[in-house]
Protein 1
Amino acid sequence: MSEPLLPAWDDQQAAYIADREGRFAIIASLVELHCGPAPLVVDLACGPGSLSARILAALPGARVLGVDHDPLLLELARRELAPRHDGRLTLLDADLEDAGWPAAVRAALGGARPDAIVSTTALHWLFPDRLVRLYGQAAELLADGGGLLNGDHFRFDGRTPTLRALAAAHDTATQQAAWAAGAPSWDAWWERAHAIDGGAALAAERSARFDHRPPPPPTAVDLHLAALAQAGFAEAGTVWQLLDDYVVAGFK
Ligand SMILES: C[S@@+](CC[C@H](N)C(=O)[O-])C[C@H]1O[C@@H](n2cnc3c(N)ncnc32)[C@H](O)[C@@H]1O
């Protein structure tokens, strides 16, 4: 059995997100306050399942469907996380850039509609047109009265150069402190992930799926709030912020 990689994933991600646990905590708390103690939750671009794990721990009645398209990260969630949660965590391989992902989610949920759709540190991988489409798909997928919570960096742009510089300096300081305390770098973590049983084949599949995709431009928070409103959410707002790290919410 290889050494567990989820704790090291959390350490390496926390180097890039200054209060990652605070961001998870507000998402779990708002899911509970808005949806009650036993919600059906979809975690979009779940990776190895960090946010899913926080929600399952905070809400013992919750069920979570984690969706991602990285075969290696999904495999880690399957090996290290799913067995700890008595069938409350299921995982789905689907590409959020593919228009068919909501149908795959519906099928995986047996036709049930989720009370909450959540995501962290992930939807910045979508170009703005895809992001607007995804918010619309999420609004359609959600149960009546359901909510979407998306935690991610939304970058300050040329309109706020001082804030942009402060956020960049704060990011650098956060990374230096985490690495000095022993957190693995992104590259070092992936090197370890490639070494798991079957890791080389999963890494090759990951490369085939993602390496050709160009990085999208950064987006500011107002784009997300406008996109949520455009997507059909009756209410959209910022529910948490640390410099350029936010949680935005949309409620049907
Ligand atoms: C930095 S990781 C964040 C993972 C996790 N949500 C967390 O907070 O630790 C970004 C995730 O987005 C996923 N992702 C990126 N593009 C995707 C796509 N088109 N479809 C599904 N997942 C995608 C990646 O595979 C990766 O798991």
Protein 2
Amino acid sequence: MVRDIILSINDLHIDYYTPDGVIRAVRGVSIELCKGESLCIVGESGSGKSTIGLATIRALPQNAVITRGAILYNDIDILKLSEEEMSKRVRGKEISIVFQDPAAMFNPLFTVGEILLDVIATHLGIRDRRKAYEYGINMLKLVELPDPERVVNSYPHELSGGMLQRVAIAVALSANPKLLIADEPTTMLDVTIQAQILDLLKRLRNELSLSMIFITHNLGVAAEVCNRIMVLYAGTLFEEGYTEDILTNPIHPYTRRLLECIPRAGRRVSRLKFIPGTLPDLRTPIPGCPFAPRCEYTTDICRKTPPPIYEVGYKHKVSCHLYQKR
Ligand SMILES: Nc1ncnc2c1ncn2[C@@H]1O[C@H](COP(=O)(O)OP(=O)(O)OP(=O)(O)O)[C@@H](O)[C@H]1O
Ligand SMILES: [Mg+2]
């Protein structure tokens, strides 16, 4: 079956210019996402996850430079659009994003209703206040906010973190986008609220036939939410595949380590591992595999030559010299 590709990122390279040097944050990442698929980008802090998400909606900070690569959304060449076209045609309308900290997204001086009315007027052109209000209330109901009439008149600081994240999701989805990027949407929430937000996202994804890119540092969360997983490290792909294949047949030593970090029923917490060491300095050249200093299987070639990407199964890729040696 041929499936439509909604997003295609090809060999993306992104640098940040800082007073201390150039940080090569994304080093040749490619992503192909089909309609209705949900892909999780997993990696530890600083691996470049948010940078890829922000580039996709062209919201990178000013010190970021895309040095190479292409981002295609359907037939739209994202990197070639003018800012005006981007905000009129794509951002919020076709592709929306939800962040880790919803409070930082909203102007504290506006009520939830005012925020929603603005988005609804801008993206859907509904200027009749009563109609827009009804639409807004329905959006709040869609994200299962209790008492939407009260929420609509509340200021962001009057709502809990979980409620505010639901509002952020409602705002993100109000113009009916086809692709949702969720960047660590549950990291700042209590565990029980986290589970509720994940359930909500899964339900909305199915009901609205959304395609999704879900960003997290937690492989356990990734496995629960997404049908595909991409493991990112120092701005490069380490492993990618269908969730089931990654969980049952992880190839890269780093993916295996990440899996050992997931708490599971029947495994004593004291046996949970963590991965010693840190990401390499992204300002200095990395001659070989960026994981070489932390990997228990490192040999000479790992330190000297970047590993190629091997196809190890159906849509299962890995970038590790070890694979060739097996
Ligand atoms: N505005 C910026 N200026 C300079 N460097 C930046 C900027 N934003 C990110 N970086 C650097 O780029 C690299 C990738 O950062 P990014 O935020 O994409 O990582 P991440 O995987 O999203 O991490 P986290 O899990 O902490 O959110 C890091 O080294 C980070 O310090
Ligand atoms: Mg991030």
